[in-house]
Design a protein that fits this description.
The protein is α/β, with parallel strands linked by helices. Helix content is 21%, strand content 31%. The strands form 8 sheets. It has a 6-stranded mixed sheet with strand order 7-4-6-5-9-8. The protein has a 6-stranded mixed sheet with strand order 16-13-17-21-20-18, with helices on both faces. It has a 5-stranded mixed beta barrel with strand order 22-25-24-26-28. The relative contact order is 0.13. The structure holds adenosine monophosphate and magnesium ion. Adenosine monophosphate is lined by residues 186, 188, 190-191, 203, 205-208, 252-256, 258, 329-332, 403.
Length: 438
């Protein structure tokens, strides 16, 4: 049995991210939120694009006002009013000023803005009693960045600030990685969909829905393949379908040592390579990780030589790639915990994210005593909150067993008890893994 850290290293190593040439698409800026940039963005413009005012006030020549003070005020003639969005027509001569507003273009001849609170208007003049600093409150053209500068690197997620930068730089068509395709199915003769009334021995398949939600949250596309019976033929068929349509395959159930647990057998029958069979963690011990499909990753020149459409290239590439298979345990909590611990970072890495795909752990103070038994790394679910500026972990009440989903609701963190550490006292320090939304 592998340790969690060993399993993590194997899994992260198996992930070959999407290709920044072959696995991209161009999308509109308005659809870009949550997508990963596949190519760096270079500015087409100087920014600011014009010398403009950072204040409501008066555009002046620094020479005219540099020596003024309360005893020696300067009176300047106001020759033009320049609101934002207007092209000034005059050139300031000595002794002249222009009324100007925030964001408006500086008139020729002016080099400094005096904020209006420091001035006194007098009919068509303005009185100034405090000397400004040279070039004060002027946003100089290209003082933020120049045309040709890199604005955003490849491999980052586009969120609000990145969207603002792209919009300001007039980048409408954005080259992003396509969404990873993740096939999901549940195995088990006992499983039924939620709308069915339960016959004796049946249980509702909840994993499929939870896993699809998690996959969507990561910006990937779930391909839902439903419930599959514990039957080798049916299982082989669904795995083949998944191989032809997805990058990553997630199944739940059928990975223990029971007589009806066929996942491993099917992977081997399909010439897959099994890298992990079980991991020393609780919940989540039965976990199968395998690779299936072509071993040789695609050589770009092969693809370049194909005189076919983009989507055909894309499909060929999808089919030629090796696929990662995660056979998650069937118990609902185990399925989610193993997803958060291993699958989530794997999908995030696969999606093209350069950084920030690894699991995030934080140190917190535990409100209650934390206990585990045995020598597996234990994950205890609960809620992380900030109390008086300190992160505190509160255990979810109720039964913490891998079949009991109910108290997972509203949790956002898993406290981690390393192997061999069976007790952390109340108010003690614990590492927690952040999960879900915060
Ligand atoms: P297995 O890993 O197939 O041995 O399943 C372990 C336990 O999880 C059994 O009690 C199953 O009934 C339950 N289980 C398996 N798959 C699911 C699922 N998709 N949704 C909810 N419970 C499941
Ligand atoms: Mg089963």
């Amino acid at each position: 049995m592998l340790s969690v850290n060993e399993a993590e290293a194997i899994i992260f190593n198996l992930v070959q991210p999407l290709d920044n040439q072959l696995n991209t698409e161009i999308i509109d800026l308005r659809q870009a939120q949550g997508r990963i940039l596949a190519a760096a963005i270079t500015s087409k413009l100087d920014f600011p694009h014009w010398d403009n005012s950072a204040m409501d006030g008066y555009a002046v020549r620094y020479e005219d006002v540099k020596a003024c003070n309360a005893e020696n005020p300067v009176i300047l003639e106001v020759i033009e009013e320049i609101p934002a969005g207007y092209q000034p027509i005059s050139t300031l001569q000595p002794g002249q000023a222009a009324r100007i507003f925030t964001g408006a273009v500086m008139p020729a001849g002016a080099d400094t803005v005096i904020m209006q609170e420091m001035t006194q208007p007098q009919s068509n003049c303005v009185l100034i009693q405090v000397a400004p600093k040279p070039q004060e409150f002027v946003r100089k053209r290209a003082s933020y960045y120049h045309a040709g500068d890199e604005l955003l690197p490849a491999g980052i997620m586009i969120n609000a600030p990145e969207t603002a930068i792209l919009a300001a730089a007039q980048c409408n068509d954005i080259c992003v990685f396509r969404k990873p395709k993740v096939a999901i199915f549940s195995t088990g003769n006992e499983l039924v969909t939620p709308e069915k009334s339960l016959k004796a021995g049946q249980i509702v398949d909840s994993n499929q829905y939870a896993l699809a939600a998690l996959v969507r949250q990561l910006g990937a596309e779930p391909i839902i393949l439903g419930i599959v019976a514990d039957e080798p033929k049916a299982l082989a068929e669904v795995v083949k379908t998944a191989l032809n349509s997805a990058d990553i395959i997630l199944s739940s159930g059928g990975v223990s040592v029971g007589d009806y647990d066929y996942v491993e057998q099917i992977i081997q029958a399909l010439a897959g390579e099994i890298h992990i069979r079980s991991v020393g963690m609780k919940p989540g011990k039965p976990l199968t990780v395998a690779t299936l499909g072509h071993k040789d990753s695609v050589v770009n020149s092969d693809i370049d030589n194909l005189q076919v459409s983009n989507s055909a290239v894309e499909n060929r590439h999808l089919n030629l790639r090796q696929k990662l298979y995660f056979g998650l345990p069937g118990n609902p909590v185990s399925a989610l915990v193993t997803f958060w611990r291993f699958v989530q970072p794997a999908i995030a890495k696969f999606s093209g994210l350069a950084d920030g795909w690894k699991p995030v752990f934080m140190k917190a103070k535990t409100k209650q005593e934390l206990r585990s038994s045995g020598d597996r790394e234990s994950y205890i679910w609960g809620k992380l909150t900030i109390v008086d500026g300190v992160y505190e972990f509160g255990v979810a009440g109720g039964s913490q067993v891998s079949g009991n989903l109910i108290n997972l609701a509203q949790t956002n963190a898993l406290a981690v008890l390393p192997p061999g550490q069976n007790l952390i006292p109340a108010a003690g320090e614990v590492w927690v893994l952040l999960v879900g939304n915060h």
